[in-house]
Amino acid sequence: MKAPGAGLTGVLRWFLRHLQIVPVLLLVGGVLIDLNTPPHFSAEAFYTAAPMTAAALLSLRATVLAGIGACIADFAVLNHFGFAADSSGRSELAAVATVSAFAVVVSRLMHYRDVRLQSAREVALAVQRAVLPHPPPVIGSLRIAVRYQSAVREAQIGGDLYGVQDTPFGVRCLVGDVRGKGMEAVKAVDVALGVFREAAEEEPALAGVAERLERGLVRETERRAGLERSEGFVTGVLAEIAHSGDELRLLNRGHPAPLLLRNGEVHRAEPSEPALPLCLAGLRPAETMPTDTVRFPPGATLLLYTDGLTEAKNHAGAFYDPVAALAGRIFSGPDELLDALLADVGHHTGGRIGDDMALLAITRGGGA
Fold it and tell me: 5 CB contacts (<8 Å, ≥6 apart)?
């Protein structure tokens, strides 16, 4: 039994796939209505709607053709009923021609708007690549993949961040989420990644990296006039994968727990002690930053992500559960994992992503 509204949804999808015929349907519908109604009843609205619809949905050429078709159809009907020569017929034809010409102007304006929007998207993408460069796909025995998906397609970048650095202490990673949106969030992302790249090379312990991040982000917060420190914070997970051995160290500052995948099994790497997000350490000055150590053997994959993944909702309001979605599945590499994850989230939400998502997957080679 079909769900209520399934038929209407199917019709809508059919129209979306065949937008080019909508102006034709309007013109044909207008002619049929005119020919099957009293002579003084006019379907002028259909003739004017056809070029305007083409302007909104189709190209300039289609808009011009729709306008010409509207004028020809209206004139043919007026001539059929003998109204083409009188004042009312000429007035109606002039109105259709005027709207058709206006539709051409609208089409050009929309084209220029689309060009500007595409330019803005390209600039945003360039900013994203500068602020969030892709890490190398391979570092030693590690295979690495990242994905960033913005909730607003035009924005391309928001407050989520990721970073990967090969250091003397191991491969260090950061995934975080800045509270807020817009350019202020992008500035905080830039500061966090800049501090992380420097501190990851110099600090022997992850706690030292976190302390440097705290200080750098607090300085950035204090520069914002009128913004209290408690109003801005960053959740994040720091990870360190040793060059040898099978250990992984994690330091979690109020962020969703990473996932560890191996042989179809999925486990959350929950922190041993909860900790406040970055920029909020001043609320509890004596708080320590515990670093947890977990096994990361060959064949295992570490998945770091932001809350846009776990807060993605379907039409019923149910949140996406990556543990349930990934359990029992085996992927050939981190790229395949992230592609499948994004496809699953898109299917779960119907393509309506409510928040930005940053995803980082690292697979240690050598496993079965």
Answer: none
- Cα(73)–Cα(62) distance, integer angstroms: 16
Residue 51: helix, strand or coil by DSSP?
A: helix
Q: Is residue 129 within 8 Å of 81, Cβ to Cβ?
A: no
* Per-residue pLDDT reduced to its tens digit, 25-83: 999 999 999 999 988 888 999 999 999 999 988 899 999 999 999 999 999 999 988 88
Beta strands in the chain (DSSP E): 138-139, 142-149, 160-167, 170-178, 234-241, 247-253, 259-262, 265-268, 292-295, 301-305, 357-364
**Both tokens assigned to 266:** 């999925």
Question: Which tokens sit at 163?
Answer: 């970073």
**Who contacts 287 (Cβ-Cβ below 8 Å, separation ≥6)?**
275, 276, 281
Q: Which two tokens stand for residue 171?
A: 């491969």
Mean pLDDT confidence for 83-89? 87
> Over the stretch 114-160, which tens digit does the pLDDT of each residue have?
877 776 666 666 666 666 788 999 999 999 999 988 766 555 566 78
